[in-house]
Specification:
Shape of chain A: globular
Number of helices of chain A: 13
CATH architecture of the largest domain in chain A: 3-Layer(aba) Sandwich
Order of helices and strands of chain C: HHHHHHEEEHHHHEHHHH
Oligomer: heterotrimer
Strand order of the largest sheet of chain C: 1-4
CATH topology of chain C: ABC transporter involved in vitamin B12 uptake, BtuC
CATH superfamily of the largest domain in chain A: Response regulator
Strand content of chain C: under 5%
Chains: A alpha/beta (373), B mainly alpha (291), C mainly alpha (323)
Helix content of chain C: over 70%
CATH architecture of chain C: Orthogonal Bundle
Structural class of chain C: mainly alpha
Order of helices and strands of chain A: HEHEHEHEEHEHEHEHEHHEHHHEEEEE
Strand content of chain A: 15-25%
CATH class of chain C: Mainly Alpha
Radius of gyration of chain A: 23 Å
CATH class of the largest domain in chain A: Alpha Beta
Chain lengths: 373, 291, 323
């Protein structure tokens, strides 16, 4: 009779031993991203890209024989949630952290990222996070920063579209204002002045006043900066009001999920900025097919960039081991690393990605017009 | 002049939407003393239900609209038993917090059911535009304005003209006296809740093609609706409607002629001025509040 | 009927509950394992201070203000800017925040004298939003929507509170001071005047209470406390931006006071701690947590009209530890 408790104890011990033993044979990759809340839709591709990379690496035997364990903590699309999620992830002792793309959240985490020193990769685009401003050693941007994208949009409008009176309609937050500064800078260099500068709040759904002022300023091109719902309203109302200027949308306006929301006759001919169009490059076909099969979605650059980020981390760990300082140093030495979504440089105060592409909407899909690097 | 007319048109359209929201919101306040902060979610659900009926079930738009309104009325009825009855007669703040909790849950549920991505609804008239005297008129806007006029005008006539309408007003003004006069309070209140929810569903459906259907769309509308309710005079149905229209028009004109960057500050400043000049709103109820 | 004399023994018994609570709070960090949990505790303590101050306005004086987060923002920005731009020590930043926010609160109270009830709510909502939008548009000072980052942790007389543990005790000290202050306030003639205004304003006037002066005082006191909370927030989180001080936060603050029990002293503190900790505790329900959270708030408010503090009081009464 006494054998049974002993047997149970023995089996429990064994199970515990096995689980701890196997726990030591995995590497934890942390991810802090919004899986719920207002930004969950926009951040889903990041999770997809990360998962695709993790599965690929694990299928090939993991890193140094150890499988990658992806742990995702939810920010809830709130600033406080982002801080708490980051703290929780740190407690899991990850080798690296794939962080949210919301610049405001990353800024609020900056002090902690610095304290912890764990290599943290983010798709946040704000120029504030660049190494010569508020950026820090362990923070790696796996994107092209706002300044470059916005400048590319302005240059495209002025040089390729030949516009002389460029108007800006931007969301009144850090993102929109960052774009405005970059656009004004480029226009200044080209000796042009903006035709009209308008702003709106995120929840606003009537842009008629702003668009009419832009019309009255005789703008021949308009750059719209905002989140997906803002772009949908803008495109719709531009059509209603019969405005016929050339339109360039910021990245959120030409995401696959946003493109689905436009009325077809309203969106044709409109341009948009992206870091890249990975699915359109022949050499990425296998990757793109795999993505489509796994997630039933068209791949976009943000998913590709997070995929690239995981790959870069894996390569660094394979080379120098999983110690956080070593990985940070190794990543910092990367120069012109060509990934699927972008070309990355961190050496010499490099700010991550440099690739920008402009596409034009045709029947609900984005067709590549030009790339500017 | 073109600009002025165009902007006024869009301002009046938004104003009508705010008026719908304010009206529905005020109905439960007037009829049952219940401040329903979950109203914003009713509007959101109206839009989402509409999108589901059209995109998933393939219903034609008119039918989807009717179905949405009916489903929302049913939701209002269900809410009465689960949420509102326990709250009637309770302190205003209790009701506010309880309905806020419900709103948070409903918003979370919406994300779970309909996913995190935005959705849209096509309009009744396609995306064509009519040009009249230099002003681009989007037929959907006219539909909203026409519906507002018909519905609100009809409601006004009904409330003051018919028996049931007068009984509803009596229930709102003094439930005890109404009960003593033999008016079935419960029926009146049920009716008010269902009507309030139906208005929310209608507003959500009508607004969906203009806005983008997201889980947070109701909150912004509700804020303006709340402001309209108070500016117009708390508990006053007429005030709610006028408040909504005024806010919509001022927003549009302010953004056009003053500055788009400060238009929100402008709207709030105007609200502050209105309250300072008329501390009980523009059309205060003749019944004095308990001091 | 003459109330029974409170014996020394029963007075002592009544102290057990609050003292016991304090002992638990002092020992709490020993149970909290990591920076994450201490971080939650930091946030809870800051919101305890904010909520207790807010209750002076809402629970004691019956004035429902929806602009309180605007005052919180002013406190945060004032303290951060004072310390970062002029190199002033933390305590100067804190006092500057308290003074300026208190003054703004006093200014807000002036129009509020004429306006009552729901109209006051809307007025304060509009004022709160105007404050936030103005803070955002003053880019030259506040960096606008980019926010202020790199705000240093508090440092008092050379002792740095940069680490999570000492910071916890600093925040706990401020929270305790706030609670004690509000406790004495409630028992004072000011507290009685506030509650008279809440329950029967005209009656209070008739009895000689200077309602205007008392309302201004209520606004100013709750504003000063909000300023202190704001300063502590800025220096704890090390980053502030206008987006954070939104209307959504006002609603959370309101829920904290109501769930905890308005008009009580510890109620808002319990509500604040709960609403900060609950989303983290509910994490195991993953994507359903907001759903559960909302329903929890609803049930709490329906079933417990006096809030959690009322429930606590009733339980303690049964055990003989409360009056």
């Amino acid at each position: 009779m006494r054998r049974i408790p002993t047997l149970i104890a023995a089996s429990l011990f064994t199970v515990a031993f096995i689980t701890t033993a196997s726990a030591q044979s995995t590497i934890t990759l942390g991810m802090v991203v919004g899986t719920t809340g207002a930004f969950a839709g926009g951040e889903a591709p990041l999770v997809n890209g990360t998962k695709l990379a993790v599965e690929e690496i694990n299928a090939k035997g993991g890193i140094g024989g150890k499988q990658i364990d992806l742990v995702i903590e939810d920010t809830g699309s709130e600033q406080t949630g982002a801080i708490n999620a980051f703290n929780r992830i740190v407690g899991q002792e990850p080798v690296a952290i794939m962080n949210t793309t919301l610049s405001g959240f990353v800024l609020s985490q900056i002090a902690m990222i610095k304290d912890e020193g764990i290599p943290t990769l983010t798709g946040a685009a704000s120029a504030q996070l660049s190494p010569d401003r508020k950026g820090i050693e362990p923070l790696f941007r796996i994107r092209t920063n706002d300044e470059r994208v916005a400048a590319a949009a302005a240059r495209f409008a002025a040089e390729k579209l030949g516009a002389k009176n460029i108007a800006v309609l931007r969301i009144n937050n850090e993102y929109g204002n960052g774009w405005l500064r970059a656009i004004e800078g480029v226009l200044g260099e080209l000796k042009l002045k903006p035709a009209s500068i308008e702003s709106y709040e995120g929840p606003d759904r009537d842009l008629t006043p702003q668009l009419l002022r832009i019309k009255n300023a005789n703008a021949d091109a308009l750059i719209v900066v905002g989140d997906p719902p803002n772009h949908v309203v803008a495109v719709q109302q531009i059509k209603h009001l019969g405005l016929c200027m050339k339109v360039v949308l910021s990245n959120a306006g030409v995401l696959p999920t946003t493109l689905k929301l436009y009325q077809p006759d309203a969106s044709n001919g409109i341009y948009g900025t992206v870091d890249s169009l990975p699915a359109d490059v022949p050499e990425n076909k296998e990757w793109a097919d795999r993505y489509r099969k796994a997630f039933n979605l068209e791949p976009d650059y943000s998913a590709a960039e997070y995929y690239d980020g995981v790959m870069m981390v894996a390569q660094a760990i394979a080379k120098v081991g999983a110690g956080k300082d070593a990985v940070v140093k190794e990543l910092r030495s990367i120069q012109n690393h060509k990934g699927i979504g972008n070309v990355y440089s961190y050496a010499n105060k490099g700010d991550g990605g440099v690739s920008v592409a402009i596409g034009q909407i045709e029947n609900g899909k984005l067709k590549l017009t030009t790339t500017l690097n | 002049m073109d600009t002025f007319l165009q902007v006024t048109l869009s301002g009046v359209t938004m104003g009508c939407i705010y008026a719908f929201v304010a009206l529905g919101f005020t109905l439960t306040i007037a009829a049952a003393g219940v401040v329903n902060f979950a109203y914003s979610e009713w509007v959101t659900y109206g839009a989402f239900i509409g999108v589901t009926l059209v995109s998933v079930f393939g219903l034609p738009l008119w039918l989807a609209l009717l179905a949405t309104v009916l489903l929302c009325a049913v939701m209002g009825y269900a809410f009465q038993w689960i949420v509102f009855r326990p709250l009637e007669g309770r302190h205003f703040l209790t009701t506010v917090t309880a309905t806020i909790g419900i709103a948070v849950s409903m918003q979370a549920l919406a994300t779970l059911v309909w996913g995190p991505y935005a959705l849209t609804l096509p309009t009744f008239f396609g995306s064509g535009v009519v040009n009249v005297a230099g002003v681009s008129i989007f037929p959907h806007n006219i539909l909203i304005i026409a519906t507002a006029v018909v519905l609100i005008g009809g409601l006004q006539l009904w409330l003051t003209g018919t028996d049931i309408g007068l009984r509803l007003q009596a229930t709102a003004q003094d439930p005890v006296a109404a009960r003593l006069m033999g008016i079935p309070i419960r029926h009146m209140r049920t009716f008010a809740y269902c009507l309030s929810a139906a208005l929310a569903g209608l507003a959500g459906f009508l607004v969906a093609p203009l806005f983008v259907v997201t889980t947070t769309m109701g909150f912004g509308l509700m804020l303006k609706g709340l402001a309209a309710t108070i500016v117009g005079g708390w508990g006053s149905l007429k005030g709610a409607v006028f408040g909504g229209l005024i806010i919509g028009i001022i927003e549009a004109l302010g953004a056009t002629y003053v500055s788009s960057e400060y238009k929100d500050v402008l709207s709030f400043l105007i609200i502050i001025i209105v309250l300072l000049v008329r501390p009980r709103g523009l059309f205060p109820e003749p019944i004095a509040e308990k001091l | 009927m003459v109330p029974p004399r409170k014996s020394a023994r029963s007075r002592l018994l009544r102290l057990i509950a609050p003292v016991g609570l304090l002992a638990i709070l002092i020992a709490l960090p020993l149970a909290l394992k990591n920076n994450y949990q201490l971080g939650i505790a930091h946030q809870a303590l800051i919101f305890i201070i904010l909520a207790v101050g807010y209750d002076v306005l809402l629970g004691f004086t019956g004035l429902l203000s929806f602009g309180h987060i605007g005052l919180f923002a002013i406190g945060a920005y004032t303290s951060a800017l004072l310390v970062m731009s002029t190199g002033a020590p933390f305590l100067i930043g804190l006092m500057g925040a308290a003074v300026l926010t208190g003054f703004v609160g006093f200014l807000i109270s002036i129009p509020a004298l004429r306006i009552k009830g729901h109209y006051l709510t809307l007025l304060t909502l509009a004022l709160g939003e105007v404050i936030r939008l103005v803070l955002r548009s003053m880019e030259w000072l506040t960096h606008g929507s980019s926010g202020l980052s790199g705000i240093p942790r508090p440092e008092i007389l050379g002792f740095s509170f940069r680490q999570a543990l000492p910071l916890y005790y600093l925040l706990l000290l401020f929270a305790v001071l706030t609670v004690v202050f509000v406790w004495r306030l409630k028992a004072s003639r000011f507290g009685r005047a506030f509650m008279a205004i809440r329950d029967a304003e005209i009656g209070a006037e008739v009895c000689g209470v200077n309602t205007s002066k008392m309302k201004m005082m209520a606004f100013a006191i709750s504003a000063i406390i909000a300023g202190v909370a704001g300063s502590l927030y800025a220096h704890t989180m090390r980053f502030i931006s206008p987006e954070f001080f939104s209307l959504g936060l006002t609603i959370i603050l309101l829920a904290m006071v109501l769930v905890g029990g308005r008009g009580t002293i510890l109620g808002p503190a319990i509500g604040a701690a709960l609403l900060i900790a609950l989303p983290e505790v509910l994490r195991f329900v993953k994507e359903y947590y907001l759903l559960v959270f909302g329903i929890a708030i609803w049930l709490c408010v329906i079933l417990l009209p006096d809030g959690l503090a009322g429930l606590g009081r009733r339980l303690l009464k049964r055990v003989g530890l409360a009056a």
